[in-house]
Amino acid sequence: MASKQLEGYTARPCSETRQTEFSRAETVLRPGKDYRATLSTRHGDLVIELYQDQAPHTVNNFVFLALHRFYDGVAFHRVLADFMAQTGDPTGTGRGGPGYRFEDEFHPALRHDKKGVLSMANAGPNTNGSQFFITFQPTPWLDGKHAVFGQVIEGLEVLDALTHIDPQRPSGVKPDVISRLAIVEK
Questions:
Q1: Is 83 known to be catalytic?
Q2: How many whole angstroms separate alpha carbon 136 and alpha carbon 113?
Q3: How many domains are there within the chain?
Q4: Is residue 49 helix, strand or coil?
Q5: What is the pTM of this model?
């Protein structure tokens, strides 16, 4: 945690064992706190600012799962050039989730307007679970369909290094994984 983007932040303790099945996300966000996440890969770390004020339910879900180590060891199962990198499915198939779904949460100021936007992946309206993606460039056609809840503020070069995986064209290439997803607050 030597990042300048994390100065003044304190690590939230995680559960000792990894859990991947839940009936719902319990409330874990603390009022008046700002949250960031560090997503670690073999290529380096992404530091992500989370938008808890504009997307409180979505950020709470993400933080809840991270605190239960849900994302640790999960593959980037879909990484498409000039589009996005998707992860968050513990099965690695693109069809898995945490055992529950929750409603879309859109904020008019949050858009898919640049590289590094953190957004929920879904299978249609109100089908959010654990899967999320990070954009490689502006993707405005996703606005109003996928809930934006954060932005990469450090480590954009790590996105460029992720192994490209297209589930529609299996190549036998081994996907990159999230080695650790840690949450900090201030």
A1: yes
A2: 10
A3: 1
A4: strand
A5: 0.96
